[in-house]
Structures are given as structure tokens and as C-alpha cells.
């Protein structure tokens, strides 16, 4: 009898502890109602998984159109700065000694237009998924590589510094690769959208090397 009474008392104590733990997150009125039950119901909020707090990603998702336009404008500004540097690129490219596999100058503008659009979409997807506060490394890498991209145009076409342009584009390749990895971790589709940009930049890097080697007088 004593053992049974002790067991009963222990059970009552355990139920009281459970009730107190469940009721700790309730307001005073609900706590009084809930404490006497001695157990948590499965559907009660105290026994359900809590939803995550509002983050930058949910805030970002509220204005998808605004966000998309903001990233398009950002990339377009970078493209515009690069275009200023490459104002006489067609004439310069025509006068360069090039390897046989070099593409015609007419192909560069449409290719870059498509790549810039893919870049803007990729950045928007990451921003839409996490917000800038939720993916600071990925989006900062994107902006840095975008600036490096613009710098290459100025080094190669604007200032005709072949060696510095080559160093810059190698650094650009590393930044693009890092951005692809960072984007892929947030949104695989965003990382995949940057792969054509990575491949094309690698091709341009090889072309830049050979053009620099073949034109020492025009490109320092």
C-alpha cells in the first residue's frame, strides 16, 4: 500500500511538472485552466512546433516585382559602365591580331545581354528566398564580381592594359565560381543560371591571354 501510494504521489508530481512546463508559455488565465489538467494535449500550442520568426526573406517576398526591377537596374548600371569603356571596342577588336578561333565582334553584345539578364534573375531569386540579411555573403559576392566585371572592360578596352586585364579576369573567374557556390546553397536554380556566365568568362579569359600575347604594342 505504501509503495502504491508513493508511486501515485510520484505520478502526480510528474504531471504537475509537465503541466507547469506547458503552461509556462500561456497567459495567466489560460495557465490556471491548463495547470489542473496535468498533461498537454497534442494539439495544444505548447506541444506544437513553433513557427520561425519573421525574417528578411519573408519581407523580401512581399515585393517581388520591386525586387526584380531593383536587381535588373543594378545589373544594367554595371553593363552601362562597361559599355562606356567599350565604346570603341569594335574598332579595337578589328585591329587586333587574333587567334583563328576568336569569334566575330558582333557576337559579344547579344551574348552579354543574355548573361546580364540571367545574372539579374539569379540575384533576384536569392534575394527573394532569403533577403539581403539572410544571404549577405552570396549577394555581396555577386556585387563584388559585378564590379570586377566592369573593371575588366575599363582595363582592356578603356585603358588597354592587357596584363592587368588578364589578372582582373582571373580574379573575376574566382569570384564568379564562389558566387555560383554561394547561390547554389541558397537556391540551386540561381546557381545554375550563373553557369553560362562562368563558362563564357573562362572563354574570354583564354581569348584575352592570346590577344595580349599577339598584340604587345597595342596592349601593355
Secondary-structure blueprint:
Layout: H1 2-23, H2 28-35, H3 56-60, H4 64-85, H5 89-95, H6 108-134, H7 136-158, H8 162-186, H9 188-193, H10 195-214
Helix pairs in contact: 1-2, 4-6, 4-7, 6-7, 7-8, 8-10
Structure description:
- There is one protein chain.
- This protein has helices at residues 2-23, 28-35, 56-60, 64-85, 89-95, 108-134, 136-158, 162-186, 188-193, 195-214.
- With 220 residues, the protein is mainly alpha-helical.
State the gist of this model:
This protein is mainly α.
Largest sheet: none
Cα end-to-end separation: 100 Å
Unreliable segments of 5+ consecutive residues:
17-24, 38-42, 50-58
Strand and helix order: HHHHHHHHHH
- Average of per-residue pLDDT values: 83
Amino acid at each position: 500500500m505504501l509503495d502504491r501510494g508513493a508511486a501515485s504521489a510520484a505520478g502526480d508530481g510528474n504531471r504537475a511538472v509537465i503541466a507547469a512546463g506547458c503552461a509556462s508559455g500561456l497567459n495567466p488565465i489560460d495557465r490556471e485552466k491548463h495547470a489542473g489538467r496535468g498533461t498537454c494535449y497534442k494539439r495544444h500550442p505548447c506541444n506544437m512546433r513553433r513557427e520561425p520568426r519573421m525574417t528578411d526573406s519573408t519581407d523580401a517576398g512581399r515585393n517581388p516585382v520591386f525586387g526584380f526591377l531593383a536587381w535588373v537596374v543594378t545589373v544594367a548600371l554595371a553593363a552601362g559602365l562597361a559599355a562606356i569603356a567599350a565604346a570603341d571596342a569594335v574598332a579595337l577588336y578589328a585591329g587586333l591580331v587574333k587567334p583563328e578561333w576568336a569569334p566575330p565582334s558582333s557576337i559579344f553584345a547579344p551574348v552579354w545581354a543574355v548573361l546580364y539578364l540571367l545574372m539579374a534573375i539569379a540575384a533576384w531569386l536569392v534575394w527573394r528566398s532569403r533577403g539581403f540579411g539572410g544571404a549577405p555573403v552570396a549577394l555581396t559576392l555577386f556585387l563584388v564580381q559585378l564590379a570586377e566585371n566592369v573593371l575588366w572592360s575599363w582595363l582592356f578596352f578603356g585603358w588597354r592594359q592587357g596584363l592587368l586585364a588578364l589578372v582582373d579576369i582571373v580574379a573575376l573567374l574566382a569570384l564568379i565560381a564562389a558566387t555560383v557556390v554561394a547561390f547554389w546553397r541558397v537556391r540551386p536554380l540561381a546557381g545554375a543560371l550563373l553557369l553560362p556566365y562562368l563558362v563564357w568568362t573562362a572563354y574570354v579569359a583564354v581569348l584575352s591571354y592570346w590577344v595580349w600575347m599577339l598584340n604587345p604594342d597595342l596592349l601593355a
